[in-house]
Amino acid sequence: MTFFTRFLAGLMAAVALSAAAAVPDEVARLQGAWEQVKYQVPAAQQEAGFERLTEQARQVAAQHPNSADVLIWYAIIESSYAGAKGGLGALSHVKNAKKNLEQAITLDSNALSGSAYTSLGSLYYQVPGWPIGFGDDKKALENLRRGLAINPDGIDPNFFYGDYLLRKGDVDGAERALRKALQAPARPGRKLADEGRRGEIGKLLEQIAAKRK
């Protein structure tokens, strides 16, 4: 091996390591920005915030097309934008989010503690069914359970599972899942997200209490 070949090989290895190191940083930035828009920005301003963040996530995903973590957060951000936007104009965004989650599962189904399955399941039960969208309760339940199998004690998989069960009329099952979500261990660096999610869980538990009166 010539000096030039060894130098080139070393350079490429250094670039690869730098790129790998950059991915967690990019994911952390996307994650933090999403939490701020989701839980600190007034509802009326969230559409614009998520629109800007979706473009940022698209650019990061273009730079790291084989990172399951990046694709998951791109999908979470774009589906949040779709939710804030609403209407038929949001369908293209949830379809793109679905595609990215499926790609993330292909790359690494365990990435981010199975978050791709949980996020995909939440899309399946919140998006309208055929002929408007791809909503499917059977696929929702299948993916939510896969997410729970990977992260059985996590706040998000139990929250979305509880939300799904409540929407389907299983009040007792929903309450069990939601109370388990409240017992989830705190996530390092995710204080804002944990507090926001617990607030959402509290609202669902209030709905359950009202149903039982």
From TrEMBL:
Signal peptide start and end residues: 1-21
Organism: Massilia phyllostachyos
SUPFAM superfamilies the record matches: TPR-like
Protein name stated in the entry: Tetratricopeptide repeat protein
InterPro entries linked to this entry: TPR-like_helical_dom_sf
Alphabetically ordered keywords of this record: Signal
